[in-house]
Write a structure and sequence with these properties.
alpha+beta, two-stranded parallel ribbon, 8 strands, 19% strand, 235 residues, 8 helices, single chain, disordered C terminus, C8orf32 fold, globular
Length: 235
């Protein structure tokens, strides 16, 4: 048995993709305004809600099992690529769109000196999402919100439900921004042990405790990237 070509398990709730929780249900209902459109329409609306309503920040992030549940992430209102990809995958499944979690190593050329030191260079462990729409898998990355993109002079990453929303190879001023280096695979559920082990091995200085990243602010650090500061107000 399949769901439009995808296995039924890819629409199931899990401990991390806990879309049956009232917090996740409320987020989905608010985003879709109580109406359900086509899968593509729903996927696009949910993408922008996750991208822009949840603040992207690698600092003070909760990487405990509970902190990596969609409901907990929505309650906190912030996180980085792992957190935001979990929320998007859960929200898509809540409306019957099969989803998977995707992990890769990417080279990020635009970051503050502090973050590069904590990460151990420009190679970052990165998470995104894959969604099943119109009979095929598409990559979706609802990670970098409009505020952060404005501060770091990047064009926000868009998604139309018809083509991959994968990464920005260049920023808004045509400077090299991101490139994929190693693909770790696509997963039906969040592979907690694998991800946490990889994070600790790849970025040990980023952690203040076993399951919490150090304090800081990407917004505040935008002034130290060599990028001219801009107002954080979004028109």
């Amino acid at each position: 048995m399949t769901v439009d070509g995808a296995t039924p398990g890819l629409v199931a709730a899990t401990a991390s993709l806990d879309y049956e929780d009232p917090i996740v249900q409320a987020f989905v209902d608010r985003t879709l305004a109580g109406r359900r459109g086509t899968p593509r329409e729903n996927a696009v609306l949910l993408y922008y809600a996750v991208r822009d309503e949840l603040l992207y920040d690698v600092y003070d992030a909760d990487l405990s099992r509970d902190g990596l549940r969609a409901s907990s992430i929505l309650s906190r209102g912030r996180g980085f690529c792992l957190h935001k990809s979990i929320v998007y995958a859960a929200a898509c499944r809540a409306v019957g769109i099969p989803s998977r979690l995707v992990f890769a190593d990417v080279r990020n050329h635009l970051a503050s000196g502090k973050l590069l030191e904590l990460v151990g260079g420009s190679l970052f462990f990165h998470g995104l999402t894959s969604v099943w729409l119109d009979g095929r898998w598409m990559k979706a990355t609802p990670v970098f919100n409009k505020l952060l993109c404005r501060l770091y002079r990047m064009a926000p990453l868009e998604f139309d439900g018809m083509t991959d929303s994968l990464y920005q190879p260049y920023d808004a001023e045509n400077r090299r921004y991101m490139e994929f280096v190693k693909h770790h695979g696509e997963f039906d559920d969040f592979p907690y042990e694998m991800v946490i082990q990889n994070m600790h091995q790849s970025h040990p200085k980023l952690f203040s405790t076993e399951y919490r990243t150090t304090s800081g602010s990407l917004v505040a650090e935008a002034a130290f990237t060599g990028i001219p500061p801009v107002s954080p107000q979004i028109p």
